[in-house]
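Structure ticket #2291
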Amino acid sequence: MGKGGVGKSTSAALNSLFLAQRGFEVLIVSLDPAHNQSDIFEKKLADKPKQVTSHLKAIEIDQDHWIKRYLKDVHEQIRRTYSYLTSFNLEKYFKVIKHSPGLEEYALILAFKEINRKFSKMDFLVFDMAPTALSLKFFNLPTLSLIWINHLLALRKEIIKKRELITKVRLMKKEIETDKVLSRIQESIQEYTTLKELFEDPGLTKINLVLNPDQLSLAESRRIVEGLGAINISLSQVIVNKIQENSSMDHIDREFKGIPLLKAPFSETPLIGLDVLMRFLQANEEKLMGQPLQVLKNGIQ
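Resolution: structure written out below.
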């Protein structure tokens, strides 16, 4: 994560390549609508994994595709749950619904869950995140959804109680049926609880904050840390990117005291193309080996 222009896409690419070079099976996934990974690797990427180099594959998520898929799923759920309401002609509203606030983060969550499920056997999934505002909404979504869905659960249970009472009064017997709406609400609670726990577990999800040593970048980074902290998500490390020679780092060290810092020097050569990226990694291997991988494989911890 990080402010636009700090080099988070390049950092994600370098991190992925660094891990792949050490024998880890890595998939880098671009959730950023700008999709810079195609430019960085000089390879046309799509929503199916493409081999970038040995042990490294890449995907670029098509946000419009996942918005359509999300709306299709919603439509199907409503159709199944309320099949008796034949007067609902939802198709005519979908052109408006697809522009509703919040659809981007729901679509990205759907894509994230699918990637996480489909490629669970990879050693690392590296996500190049969207701009700060959308990324924070993405990580907030499970928490906010659970608040809303739990209110729906309480409301649905109250409706069921009143419905049973009416049935008893009118028919003198209890209505026996499976409540489709209640079942779907309970499924949603389980899905978002699992996702929330995944985001909060530092052993499974490692957030890398990328910033430059300037005040604007630092100010936005503070907001990111505060936003994540409010939903119980902590940083794994801070990547201070584009460091010039003799740059003062004291203010960065003070701001992120206790969080591992990875300091990446400024590159005079644009970091575009596999060969250039590999040369940069080789030149800075000693610095990069200091990052907190927290995994055991091939002698790396």
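Closing remark: Confidence is low (pLDDT under 50) at residues 294-301.
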